[in-house]
Amino acid sequence: MDFFNDSNFSFGETTAAEDGSLHYSAILPVIFGIVCFLGIMGNCIVIYTIMKKTKCRAKQTVPDIFILNLSFVDLLFLLGMPFLIHQLLGNGTWHFGASMCTVITALDSNSQIVSTYILTAMTLDRYLATVHPIRFNYIRRPCVAMLVIGLVWSMSLLTIIPVWLYAGLMPLSDGLVACALLLPDPVTDTYWFTLYQFFLAFAVPLVIICLVFFKILQHMFTSVAPLPPRSLRVRTKKVTRMAVAICLAFFICWAPYYILQLVHLGVQKPSVAFSYAYNIAISMGYTNSCINPFLYITLSETFKRQFLRAVCPVNRKIRVNPSTTEGGSVSVRMVPEGAQREPASEEMVPHNVDP
């Protein structure tokens, strides 16, 4: 995300940095600091909860893998916010060198694209789970999901090649430098790069996700095929509802940013109002990475239970078993309280079918 600068848009050289100094130096850093703190804490909780579940049960579901990787990407995205806050406090100046400028800019762009592609893959998984729960169950395996994640990262790294090539330091009028995308031909290249980013990171995934969810809804209202077990249907419905909420939140939060990027192509000298709107759009994009963990907690009873199991120590009790030794003695052993019986929930699905 080009926060302050690109090759033809530098907040350091607009009146926004002067007339809105209070806005930049006080309000936005506080808001971004809160978003950064809550987002990092929330995504760390999600990662810890899923990894703890894996350690205890030695099994991850396909939704677990997608949510784990989405949380990891959100965490990487939020870890770039301290540099953004530093830019805010310095009116767009950069003090961390050219190498860090390239790394942070590439990490920022890569996180945006990987998030979009993971959501697209998650949507396709929901399609298979809802429309073809038995037929394509052999595809919906953790190993296949990990291969998809690897493919997503590879595609994203290829997509951001222009960022690796052209991110660098741009001199400012006061002798300082800013971190910017220095395209060879600022006018023409900025136009094409903006469209390139818009379609690959937003428009195309949005169209795919909308079409897939439309097919899911169409199937749910018109299907007359034999239904899978009720427990599987309940679980699938809840996971699909959470996937819809995550995708909806993503596109609501990111739509203003990409729309303003397109509008900016026709704006030669951004006004203060446009600069404020641009900053609000950017803050909404970062907020999306902050709210995802709270969506998991709000919409998933299963995740709530997993979180409680992860953070609360397991209560143990003594169980006395008759011994099979000749003396007829008894053996005493400690077992977890929940080891004998799992609570009835939407997690109860057939062993050969992932939700």
UniProtKB/TrEMBL annotation:
G-protein coupled receptors family 1 profile domain mapped to chain residues: 42-296
Q: Transmembrane ranges? A: 26-50, 62-85, 97-122, 143-167, 191-214, 239-260, 280-299
Q: Which GO terms describe its biological process?
A: neuropeptide signaling pathway
Give the way it sits in the membrane.
Multi-pass membrane protein
Q: Name one GO cellular component term.
A: plasma membrane
GO molecular function annotation: melanin-concentrating hormone receptor activity; neuropeptide binding
Q: Which domain of life is it from?
A: Eukaryota
> Does the record bear Transmembrane helix in its keywords?
yes
A Pfam family the protein falls into: 7tm_1
Could you list this entry's UniProt keywords, alphabetically sorted. Answer: Cell membrane, Disulfide bond, G-protein coupled receptor, Glycoprotein, Membrane, Receptor, Transducer, Transmembrane, Transmembrane helix
State its location(s). Cell membrane
| Signal peptide (residue range) | none
Give the multimer and partner information.
Answer: Interacts with NCDN.
This chain belongs to the protein called: Melanin-concentrating hormone receptor 1
